[in-house]
# Entry
Amino acid sequence: MFCAMLRPDVELRLLEERHAAAVFSLIDQDRAYLRQWLPWVDSTETEDDSAAFIRSALEQFASGEGITAGVWHERRFAGVIGTHRINRLYRKVELGYWLGESFQGNGIMTDSARAMVTHLFDERAVNRVEICCAVGNHKSIAIPRRLGFTLEGTLREAEFSSGQHHDLMVFAMLRREWPVS
Ligand SMILES: CC(C)(COP(=O)(O)OP(=O)(O)OC[C@H]1O[C@@H](n2cnc3c(N)ncnc32)[C@H](O)[C@@H]1OP(=O)(O)O)[C@@H](O)C(=O)NCCC(=O)NCCS
# Structure
C-alpha cells in the first residue's frame, strides 16, 4: 500500500474506490475552475465516473504500470496526483495533478510532486519524469520549475481544453539530476 505523510498536514494515499464520493464531490464543487486546464472534467458527471477512474488507476497500480494517489490536507481530501502509464521500454513517465481551488497556495502539490518523483526514481525504475503544462497555466508551470525540472520544449497546440487549443510546455527531470534525499 502506497501511503506517505509528507508533512504534519499533508498525506498521500493510494486512491481506492471508497474515495470516489470525495473525489467526485471536489471535482463537482470546483468544476468551473478545474475545467479550464483539465479536459476530462466535463465528462466526469457522476460518482460512478470517479469510481471508474479509480478502478482503472488501481488496475495500472496492480500491474506496476502506474500510480495514482489522493492528497489529503488536514484530513480533508484535497486533490489527486498520478502518473500516466509508465513506459517500461523507455523507463519514462508523465506526471499529472490537480488540487481543489481552496487548497491552493500552501505548497501542497509541490511537496506531493517531490514525493512522487522520488518514489518513481527510487522504486519504479523510472529514469525520466515529464510534467506537461499548457502555456498560460502559470500555477502548474511553477511546480516543475520549483522542483528544478528542465523545460525541454513547447509542443504546438498539443492540448485541447475548455474549447481551446493550447501549446504544451514539456518539463523533464532525469534520475541522475534528482537530489538524493
Ligand atoms: C496546478 C495546481 C495543482 C497548483 O496549485 P498550487 O497551490 O499553486 O501549487 P502548490 O500546492 O505547490 O502551492 C504553491 C503555492 O503555495 C505557496 N507556498 C506556500 N508554502 C509553500 C511551500 N512550502 N512550498 C512551495 N510553495 C509554497 C507558493 O508560493 C505558491 O503560491 P503562489 O502561486 O501564490 O506563489 C492547481 O492550481 C490546480 O489544481 N490547477 C487546476 C488543475 C491543473 O491545472 N492541473 C495541472 C495540469 S498540467
Remarks:
- The chain has five helices and eight strands.
